[in-house]
Amino acid sequence: MIYPASRLVSLDALRGFTIAAMIVANFPGSEQYVFFTLRHTKWNGLSFTDLIAPIFLFVVGVSIALAYARPLAEQQPKGVLYRKIVVRSLKIFAVGMFLNLMPDFDITSIRWTGTLHRIAIVFLVCASVYLNTTWKQQAWIGAVTLVAYWLAMTLIPTPDSGSVMLEPGQNLAAWLDRQYLPGRMWQGTWDPEGILSTFPAIVTGITGMLAGQLMLTDKPPLEKVACLMTAGLFAAIAGYFWGLVFPLNENLWTSSFVLVTSGFATMLLGALYFLVDISGYIDGTKPGILFGANAITVYVLADVFALLFYRFNIGGKSLNEWGVNTLIQVGFLPELASLLYALFFVGINFIPAYVLYRKRIFVKL
């Protein structure tokens, strides 16, 4: 096993492009006008936006392998590593709670789940698993978890209906959320980042750990690319066929969804590794690298900027409404106008990302 002397730049690029895509999806110029593939699918299916969260969790898994391989090899005390893992998880979770409470900070309608919350949990579990298992054991843990989740969701009837269903709010995961998930749920009676669906989300992180451990081997770079592309392709194909009996569904984070999205993520990492780290093609991927170096910081700033932009009025309209309406009036399609505003907003967030990168400031929670 080898340990990179510097950052795996392609991983920064993948992380950064994922954050940029997340900003585009989360902050369109108008919620009314959004291209279909830039919306989450309402239930079964897979859109471009549905790929964003699992790719980020995959990146979290890769980062775990890269970050903790050397401390393990040097036999650093696991107690010290556990403390760092727990503290970082709590920090990420706390930032997620802060964003959930913004802007009114009304604790009576608090939501205990969300994107950063799931990242925190996946990081905590995956990092703990990584410290205590081999890659083969991790693969088995992931496989068994996906099969167990599939069997549970398709064989165990929900107590309130007495039947097995995979419909919105009418499935085992939704029932568990109603029984045991505190606070407000995103969809009223169920939550896409609920209790049961977190288990397969952890497997998404494990797939990233497996890819990260491949990157740490002494295989030639081009062989690593071949392994990533091959593994990603086979995972996506397997997920597609599994989806025929357990449909791809981000809200349920189905087992087929894990394989297809992890397959795409693995192939993206392989492609970027070839372009950036092997071929040295930096110019076209520089925006992703800048975003990726401070990904969570940019994610938080995007929420803050969005709130400020919404409250900044021009002629009685928020900045995004004014911008979209202006573009529509000069002849742009409404959906395109909304997308152009979202890209403009990504550019706004690029400014602090650029400043932090130039000053070599990397904010770590």
UniProtKB/TrEMBL annotation:
Species whose genome carries this gene: Spirosoma terrae
Ranges in coiled-coil conformation: none
Keyword Calcium: no
Record lineage: Bacteria, Pseudomonadati, Bacteroidota, Cytophagia, Cytophagales
Keyword annotations from UniProtKB, A to Z: Membrane, Transmembrane, Transmembrane helix
Alphabetical list of InterPro entries matching this protein: HGSNAT_cat
Domain named Heparan-alpha-glucosaminide N-acetyltransferase catalytic: residues: 7-155
Protein name: DUF1624 domain-containing protein
Key word Lyase present: no
Pfam family, one: HGSNAT_cat
Transmembrane segments annotated in the record for this chain: 51-73, 85-103, 115-132, 139-156, 195-216, 225-246, 252-276, 288-312, 332-357
